[in-house]
Design a protein that fits this description.
The chain is mostly helical. The protein contains 6 helices and no strands. Helix 2 crosses helix 3, helix 2 runs antiparallel to helix 6 and helix 3 packs parallel to helix 6. The longest helix has 47 residues.
Length: 162
């Protein structure tokens, strides 16, 4: 549900909150947003390792917390186009994954990390749904961070067993 245009997020908040407009996808905006983050995550990981990814995560946490209120004011609770939280959460599964530096070798980890995060984010098991109840932007973000943590744990187990 949208309210008046005077409450619409300004262009910078719209650009960032929608993950460079990836959240404006007419189909599965959360999935589109998560997918759009993957190339950035991979390239930053290759460039600067875990420190670059931690920086990226912190930036998207900040962006999410700053822009979420404008999105909620315009679109309502937990708005679909808002995917800054997905960008933050999608980063977490790759925090402790060492990539080989060859996309041909790394693609299975990227795909699996993406799928695991989306499963946890969509199904919201193991307390993830509870995190949504936190107030405003915190709740929007917290469930994605926990989904990312669960995806990280499962991805690490799969990598160790592979």
């Amino acid at each position: 549900m949208r309210s008046s245009s005077k409450n619409r997020p300004d262009i910078l908040k719209l650009f960032l909150g929608t993950g460079f407009f990836s959240g404006l996808s007419p189909v599965a905006p959360g999935t589109a947003g998560s997918l759009a983050a993957i190339p950035f995550i991979y390239l930053l990981s290759l460039w600067g390792g875990v420190w670059a990814l931690l920086g990226f995560l912190l930036v998207w946490i900040f962006i999410s917390l700053v822009t979420a209120p404008a999105f909620e004011a315009y679109y309502g609770k937990d708005p679909a186009p808002f995917v800054a939280d997905e960008w933050a959460g999608q980063t977490i599964p790759f925090l402790s994954v060492g990539f080989a530096g060859s996309l041909a070798e790394d693609i299975w980890i990227l795909v699996l990390g993406f799928i695991l995060f989306r499963i946890f984010d969509i199904l919201k098991p193991l307390g993830i749904k509870t995190m949504e109840r936190l107030p405003s932007g915190t709740g929007i973000l917290a469930d994605d961070l926990l989904a990312g943590l669960y995806a990280l744990l499962l991805l690490k187990i799969i990598i160790l067993l592979a």
